[in-house]
Design brief:
By secondary structure, the protein is α+β, with helices and mostly antiparallel strands. The protein is built from ten helices and seven strands. Helix 6 runs parallel beside helix 8 and helix 8 packs antiparallel against helix 9.
Amino acid sequence: MMFRKRRPPAGSRPGTLALAQNALPPRISVIRLNRDVCEELVDVDVETVERERAAGDTLWVDVQGLGDPTVLHALADLFQIHPLALEDIVHTPQRPKTERYDEHQLYISRMVRSGEDGHPVFEQVAILIGSNYVLTFQEQPGDVLDPVRQRLRQGVGVLRQNGADYLAYAIIDTIIDYYYPIVEQLSDQIEAMEVRVMADPTPRTLARINRLKATLLEMRRGIWPQRDAVNQLIRDDTPFISDSTRVYLRDCYDHCVQLGEVIETYRELAAGLFNTYLSVVSNRTNEIMKVLTIMASIFIPLTLVAGVYGMNFDVMPELHRPWGYPAALGLMLAMAGGMLWYFGRKGWLRNGDPAATLRDDGDDA
C-alpha cells in the first residue's frame, strides 16, 4: 500500500487521537525571544513551557515525537488547541494545508531531508501560529530548521524584531528551500541513469528507476498541496498573519511553483527512462533472436545435405567415390559461406546495440 494514514476507528468522536505504536515520546524544546533576548531551553516539560509563556515574549515551542497523549493534551489545554487541529497534528501523514481556528492558524507542511543512506526522508511538520507563539510538531527528532535556530541565537537580521508570524514564515521558507538540494540530487541521478540505461539495462537499473519515480511522486505530493496552502495563508484574512509577512509568503509561493514545475519535468524524464529501458531490453532481445535465427538459417540447408547423404540406400552416385566425402563438406561450406555473404550484403549482421550507436554518434561529433 502506497499511502496509509493513521486514523481512529470508524464512528469515533471528532478529535479522538490514534497514536502510532512506534511513535516516539515527545521531546520539547522552547525558544523565548524578543529584540534583546533569546533564551533556549531543551528537553523541558509542559510546566516549563507554561512559565516561559507567562513572560509575554514571542515563544517557539518545538515538539519532536507524538507518542504521549498526556503531553499532547496538556499542550492543547495550555494553548487552547482545537481538538480537530490536534487530530490533524497526530494523524500523519496529512495533505499539506492550512486551517483557521479562533485561537490559532494551523499549517501542515511536508518536510524532506537526506537520510543517513542518502535517500530522501519525508516527514510531516505541523505549525500552529498564535498571537505571540509558534508551535511545531514533528514525528521524530531531526529536522531542517537549524538555520532558523542559528539565526535566532546570533540575533542577526530581523527575525527577533518581528512577531510570531514572521517566525512561522521563516520556518515555512526553510522547509520549502530544503527541497532544492534534494531536487538537485535527483537531477544528478537522472543524468547518471540516462547513461546507465543505455550501457547496463539490468534489473537493478530498473529497480533504481522505479525508486526514482516513487521519490519524485512523493516530492510532488509534498510541494503541490503546499503551494495551495501558502496561497491560502496569503489570501486569508487571518489576524495571525500580518500584511508585511504576507509579502514574504509570496516568495514561498513562487518557490513552490518553481519546484512543482521542475519536479513535474523530472517525473516525465523518469517515465522516459522507464520506456527507454524497455526499448533497450527489447532491442537486445531482438539482437539475440537475430543471431539465433541466422545460425538456424545457416544450419538448416546443411542439415538437409547431411540428411540426404545419410539416407540408408545402397545405390547413391557419390557413395563409393573417393572424393564424395570432401565434396559434401565443400558443398556445405559453400552454402554456409554464400548465406553469410548474402546476410552481410543485406545488412543483417550489423550490431544494433543502442549503446554502441551512442558511442558511434559521440565519435562522429
